[in-house]
Amino acid sequence: MLLLYLFSFFLNNFIGSNLFLMRLFVNRYYPVFINVYTIWILYLLFFASFRYSPTILFEIKTVPFETINDYTTNVIKWNKIEFIKNIFGNIILFIPYGFLGILYPKLNQFRWMVISFFIIINILEFSQFYFNRGMADIDDVILNTFGAIIGFFIYKKYFFIKDR
């Protein structure tokens, strides 16, 4: 929650003064950015060199909050960087997908954005398992969707232009 507050503070104080320029930039260049960004995310999920490690378990984790609980109780004790990368990385990496309403007006509705993103991220998680590129973890789906929801609210508050 503190991270969200600090991010909101940054947006209000530093970006808010040039909001018109930021809106123009985001609405004009987001389509290019999100395509390049998606290719990069897909590369990380399926082709990055760490995906070929023999220590990666190829399994499906279906118990909600099991991995998050494991990271908050065990991993943070001996590897804080791994905790930050996994928990916050899964959230922060997917914030830009909350802006998809720029490309697809139906996704300006919260319900459709969450449903669409949830379905797509489930397909990606299962594909990681199916192609032996990692585990399919429901906690990743939850954290990724939470990131997109944060992005959606940032988009609606700061960048959404009703008159198009």
UniProtKB/TrEMBL annotation:
Per the UniProt record, which residue ranges are transmembrane? Answer: 32-52, 87-104, 110-129, 141-161
UniProt-listed Pfam families = VanZ (PF04892)
Q: What does the UniProt keyword field contain?
A: Membrane, Transmembrane, Transmembrane helix
What highest taxon heads this organism's lineage?
Bacteria
Q: The VanZ-like domain covers which part of the protein?
A: 36-156
**Stored InterPro entries:** Teicoplanin_resist-assoc, VanZ-like
Q: What is this protein called?
A: VanZ family protein
Biological source species: Epilithonimonas hominis
From the broadest rank down, the organism's phylogenetic lineage runs: Bacteria, Pseudomonadati, Bacteroidota, Flavobacteriia, Flavobacteriales
